[in-house]
Write a structure and sequence with these properties.
Number of helices: 4
Order of helices and strands: EEHEHEHEHE
Oligomer: single chain
Shape: globular
CATH topology: Transcription Regulator spoIIAA
Largest sheet: 6 strands, mixed
Radius of gyration: 14 Å
Distance between the termini: 6 Å
Length: about 140
């Protein structure tokens, strides 16, 4: 399957924006990007709002990241959140079927996810959620 992953940055947060179709062929790269951000002490937003298809391996990578981040809110360190737009019906349905929201914070917008993760680690300037820089990676 063909899928791309854009990486944008906000203070303390890496935002991984997935486009297209993602499955086992892109799962290891997604998991590596999540691990790299967490290893650097950053929180992670996995934005699925532009995805056409995901399978269980992508969900497993997200849950792996959540376990590493300890996104239960008890620890003020790095966290992990997901963005799922209701317009991406397949993804919204998939997340609903597996009850992902019981394990990971699911947001309707990228800004909401970024701000919520930044608040975990303390106060930040009003414009700190602004995203900068895009790195595009195409996995085939």
């Amino acid at each position: 399957m063909d899928g791309t992953l854009d990486i944008t940055h906000a203070p303390g947060v890496d935002v991984l924006v997935l486009h297209g179709e993602h499955d086992l062929s892109t799962q290891s790269y997604l998991e590596a990007r999540i691990d790299a951000a967490l290893d650097a002490g950053k929180s992670v937003v996995v934005d699925l709002s532009e995805v056409d298809f995901i399978d269980s391996t992508v969900l497993a990578a997200i849950l792996h990241g959540q376990r590493r981040a300890g996104s239960d809110g008890a620890d003020p360190g790095p966290g992990l959140a997901v963005v799922a737009s209701p317009a991406a019906k397949f993804v919204a349905r998939m997340l609903s079927l597996v009850h992902l929201e019981e394990h990971v914070a699911v947001h309707l917008s990228r800004d909401s996810a970024v701000v919520s993760l930044q608040r975990r680690t303390g106060p930040s300037p009003d414009d700190s959620h602004r995203l900068s820089g895009v790195t595009r990676v195409t996995q085939r």
